[in-house]
């Protein structure tokens, strides 16, 4: 089923999406625009992307999360029924305090502006969890520590923003869901982390893997992500509901890379290292109870995503995809 049809149950709403050009929010915005009034906030740095959104009847407004003035949201309506807040300052510059301040304050300002919404969905990250064994299935009650060697400020800023979202949900009485996202991937955007690995494979660059075992994750294809957003809005409550947002299947990162190697014939140079891009496998029990099961199996999703982004490199016929 086409992704726009999978959000058809949500009709006639006025929806605000931040980070609307990203891997997560853009396919959601485009799908919801079929039957709803959708607005996207962002900086729209990618050339042409704003025009594409406008062509899909999506209203766009420039928004700088770091702008604390009263003008930042001055020309944005305040009568949205649903909000998806996916925009983030990741902290690539290593400035922890700036990342914490920008993400937390922006979330609070946005929630206050949209305080009358039916539901607010904040996209956080699974990278906040305290690292346990490689194959540990993380639940919503597992301890957090906000440590990620590959991007240190990012999970710290997300944890701080989660705190702000929890506080504003209660103070404003705004039904909220905090969804800690795993790895989203699919045909839109840059394709997600698996496609970043494939680009490294094409360039002949090494991919760091643990000396023993492999990192595990819960890949979430954009088809399932899009379908689950309305259900996560329906699950919103006060105090804010927390849920791990990932796919149903446990996926080994090394297994995923080797599968792409098999599909394309492009060699993967796996190099044992103590420092890797750590990933987290989720226990999907709560999320399945809220959204229902996923529909895209990871091998099929990876094959389809490779075909969308790198069609000249996929050599294995579709009927062999699960081999």
TrEMBL record:
Any single Pfam family the record assigns to this protein: Epimerase
InterPro entries: Epimerase_deHydtase, NAD(P)-bd_dom_sf
Native source species: Streptomyces broussonetiae
Protein name according to UniProt: NAD-dependent epimerase/dehydratase family protein
Gene3D superfamilies: NAD(P)-binding Rossmann-like Domain
Residues of the NAD-dependent epimerase/dehydratase domain: 15-231
Matches recorded under SUPFAM superfamilies: NAD(P)-binding Rossmann-fold domains
Similarity comment text for this entry: Belongs to the NAD(P)-dependent epimerase/dehydratase family.
């Amino acid at each position: 089923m086409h992704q726009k049809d999978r959000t058809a149950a949500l009709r006639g709403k006025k929806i605000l999406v931040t980070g609307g050009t990203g891997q997560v929010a853009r396919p959601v915005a485009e799908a919801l625009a079929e039957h709803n009034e959708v607005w996207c906030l962002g900086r729209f740095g990618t050339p042409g992307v704003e025009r594409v959104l406008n062509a899909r009847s999506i209203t766009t407004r420039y928004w700088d999360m770091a702008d604390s003035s009263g003008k930042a949201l001055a020309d944005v309506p305040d009568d949205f029924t649903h909000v998806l807040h996916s925009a983030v300052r990741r902290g690539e510059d290593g400035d922890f305090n700036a990342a914490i301040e920008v993400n937390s304050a922006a979330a609070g300002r946005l929630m206050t502006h949209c305080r009358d919404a039916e539901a607010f969905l904040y996209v956080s990250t699974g990278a906040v969890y305290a690292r346990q064994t490689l194959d540990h299935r993380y639940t919503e009650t597992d301890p957090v520590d906000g440590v990620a060697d590959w991007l240190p400020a990012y999970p710290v800023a997300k944890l701080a923003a989660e705190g702000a979202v929890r506080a504003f949900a209660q103070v404003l009485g705004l039904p909220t869901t905090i969804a800690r996202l795993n790895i989203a991937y699919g045909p839109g955007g840059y394709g997600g982390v698996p496609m970043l690995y494939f680009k490294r494979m094409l360039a002949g660059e090494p991919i760091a893997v643990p000396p023993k075992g492999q990192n595990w994750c819960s890949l979430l294809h954009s088809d399932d992500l899009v379908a689950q957003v309305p259900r996560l809005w329906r699950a919103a409550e006060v105090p804010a509901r927390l849920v791990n947002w990932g796919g149903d299947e446990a996926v080994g990162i090394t297994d995923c890379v080797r599968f792409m190697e098999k599909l394309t014939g492009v060699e993967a140079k796996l190099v044992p290292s103590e420092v890797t891009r750590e990933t987290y496998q989720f226990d999907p029990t709560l999320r399945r109870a809220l959204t229902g099961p996923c529909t895209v199996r990871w091998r099929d999703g990876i094959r389809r995503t490779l075909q969308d982004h790198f069609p000249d490199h996929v050599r294995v016929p579709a009927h062999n995809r699960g081999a």
